[in-house]
Amino acid sequence: MPFRDEAQFVQWLRARWPERAPGFDLGIGDDAAVVSVARGHDLILTTDLSLEGIHFRSDLHPPRAIGYRALARAISDIAAMGARPRFALISLALARHTKRAWVSAFYDGLAGLARRLGVALIGGDTAIVEERTMADFVAVGDVERGRALRRAGARAGDRVYVSGRLGLAALGLEMLKSGALGIRNVRRAGKRTARNERAALMAHLYPEPRCGVGMYPAKRRLASAAIDVSDGFARDLGRLCEASSCGAVVRENRLPLAEVTAGGKRELDPLELGLHGGEDYELIFTVPRSRVARLPAAVEGVPVREVGEIRRKRGLTLVRADKQETPLEARGYDHFEGLRA
Amino acid sequence: MPFRDEAQFVQWLRARWPERAPGFDLGIGDDAAVVSVARGHDLILTTDLSLEGIHFRSDLHPPRAIGYRALARAISDIAAMGARPRFALISLALARHTKRAWVSAFYDGLAGLARRLGVALIGGDTAIVEERTMADFVAVGDVERGRALRRAGARAGDRVYVSGRLGLAALGLEMLKSGALGIRNVRRAGKRTARNERAALMAHLYPEPRCGVGMYPAKRRLASAAIDVSDGFARDLGRLCEASSCGAVVRENRLPLAEVTAGGKRELDPLELGLHGGEDYELIFTVPRSRVARLPAAVEGVPVREVGEIRRKRGLTLVRADKQETPLEARGYDHFEGLRA
Fold this sequence. Notes:
homodimer; 341 residues; alpha+beta; CATH 3.30.1330.10; Phosphoribosyl-aminoimidazole Synthetase, Chain A, domain 2; 2 domains; eight-stranded mixed beta sheet; four-stranded mixed beta sheet; 9 helices; 13 strands; globular
């Protein structure tokens, strides 16, 4: 048992993260957190569950990555709306059998990301439970009033853009699940293996929320709609289209697919991973044709690439490399498969 | 199994609560919620876990009360800071074996409270889990900038006030736990039993967050510090004093104790319940002597009563009815005892 009781756990927490930040003036431990919002700004709120056996597996994922990813997922929702992440609240129901080193690494992982992005940890709740560890991450961001990007808003003719590479995180998860890389070997293996394999592992374990990529078009009113890739490019583009009452055409030869070089993993199809892999936390956004010229090829070093076009007709269509058109289903490459223990 | 999968659950939710509210312009289902904050206002954020087997027991508590109480607890934190509750986000990890009627009643309970207080349900997350149900409730309120009440701020000489009655919720829990009233009999029993017993049951199952009581002194700058009674009057007053670097004297004959009339429950000491019972969700606040005259005897029909005084010397002292002074320990009448299944 890592802590005698909840009180001791809270004390441990407070001693480690006495966070302070602009616009926030109350430490963890009061009844609630007080934040001020700059004049003319909207606040963006999101909450994401991270459950042992569903979103992570303690025998597969290093605790540092579990904490990091849980926060990254929530922040990715803020990024998808073109907002700047500002604050986080974390509720943690910790399994009694957890070791203190696990909790420490879990918090180090999330606190590292929070610090790097200027996100203040301003509160939360804690409990000790008998079974599995569960966390709920609340992320709060802000954006100039009226500038938040939504899923709804794409129009026929708008170009579809995506950031970074697709399928990399799914490849990393496959590598972890195949057992080629046990949890203890990730770091060592990372040194041995090819650069792409390391990138895939990192994309799965430590995805980078695309805050800069989301804020760029939001600030300049370039994008008509946006969403982040949490459940797979096809599924999430489908959601954007559904919310916008439209469809889209996607060109295979434009997709920034991850290379599948991992040894013994050649049976994995890069297109399959890229379209349905999920957990990439890249951003999909749509840009009216008249504004396309104002979008750079990369934002803060992250490539953003046009991969298709919005059209009036519902549904998604994939134009294959050989020009053949096939319906693109938002179907379930279930990245949780095998994660459910 | 109440829902085929998470997607169906989310669909069910959305159809039931398409909430809209001033200052909130995005439905459940986008990446995050967008809220606007009135100029010159601060935002208050809090999050509270409600875990099966710790905060509630499915064999003891009606699902309607479980949903209601979980939201009431979070809103009580907002009330304790003198703020107006505005929004809520609810993350629910639902045990697979749960019946749909349970989920329905759970949401009816919380939605009823939310509607009555003008709190919009603006988002959340959902998952199906194998074991116990757990929920995380995020409540968001707002308050004129700089007017939020905190635990810190009480000064020697300030009067200590408390709202409503103390120990009523603990009495209600004792009645439930004793088995005198099975979960199915609460309503019927309520008609049979004495008025006080019904009040006790209601105080436990459906506590009223004291929003009006908190906002009154916050708006008028009457209070120097405040906290809500979640873990017991003595413990929570102790926390206020600790945060304010002071102590307090409390007078037994001033305490608004619950009457213990429940049949067969005469062994319960009203003072014990009132000082250590917990979960009353009444407010404790301190008022400088010079402003005491501006405080009415009741706010929106809820009595607020002076029960003691802040003093420089640390620690709490109880002045008994016979004028004897005894140290008042913030000790653990553990209201969870017997709740842990």
